[in-house]
Design brief:
heterodimer; A: mainly alpha; globular; B: mainly alpha
């Protein structure tokens, strides 16, 4: 790998300060995580809809492409990836990646709300741990931004 | 059978870690030099390919094994990525960051085994 520019470069810190709310990397992280969650829901629905088409080909996952819901899911995956690249540009990876794991709380929660799936007590504990961890990871960074 | 599965899981986690590092390096290079330069294009392409390998490996693993077997290991990727970001990208690993990351890892493992 070539020379690596440190993330907290003074020049970028000044530019970051001038960013409006729309350019806030945390907003993009939220969009990225939400798009991943929505895409999973669409793909789950689409995959269930097309499960009966061909048993012979179902193992490749290709039969799911017959469902428009899966394609909507793919669009959300692409949006999620582009916003994730924006997040990577403006946030340290050691903060952004743990924070992105919030999807492991969002996906079961939305499956519960939208798809009516059941959440076991152990899973509730896991969701709580992810959210507490996220709050701890995000807090020092938020305080740093306030100081700037 | 199990040892092959473990090996595949380790390779998929390694691919995820490498992919994220490559993408981070690609995006980091755009801050100073913009998007029309070789480092960005080469590292972005490499990152996308490695993430593709990770995606296919995970799908392949999920076809053969339960989510509750495959995903707890993926949860560990948080630790590997934070460590790699600290050592390779020279990011500052603060105590709250480490504690928060460990809690998130434990949460992801609990969510996936339940």
């Amino acid at each position: 790998m070539g020379p690596i520019v440190p993330t907290e470069h003074p020049k970028t810190a000044v530019i970051d300060r001038r960013y409006s709310v729309l350019r806030n990397p945390w907003l993009h992280l939220a969009i990225s995580a939400s798009c991943t969650t929505v895409s999973e829901l669409f793909m789950k629905r689409g995959a269930t809809d097309t499960a009966h088409i061909s048993e012979q080909w179902s193992w490749t996952g290709l039969t799911t492409l017959g469902s428009p819901l899966v394609w909507i899911g793919i669009v959300f995956v692409i949006v999620s990836f582009i916003t994730w690249l924006y997040v990577l540009k403006h946030m340290p990876l050691s903060v952004a990646f743990p924070a992105s794991q919030v999807i492991h709380a969002m996906i079961p929660l939305s499956s519960w709300i939208v798809l009516g799936e059941r959440i076991s007590p152990t899973r509730w504990c896991g969701i709580a741990l992810v959210l507490i961890g996220l709050a701890i990871v995000a807090r020092p960074v938020a305080r740093l931004e306030e100081k700037l | 059978m199990t040892s092959i599965a473990l090996l595949l899981i380790l390779v998929s986690v390694a691919a995820l870690v490498c992919g994220e590092l490559l993408l981070k390096h690609a995006m980091q290079s755009t801050i100073a030099a913009g998007f029309r330069q070789r480092t960005f294009i080469v590292f972005l392409l490499a990152g996308v390919i490695v993430m593709g390998v990770y995606f296919l490996l995970t799908l392949g693993l999920l076809q053969r094994f339960d989510l509750s077997y495959v995903y707890p290991f993926q949860g560990l990727s948080v630790i590997f990525i934070s460590a790699a970001a600290g050592f390779l990208l020279r990011e500052k690993l603060t105590v709250p960051l480490v504690i928060g990351s460990l809690l998130i890892t434990a949460g992801v493992v609990l969510v996936s085994i339940s």
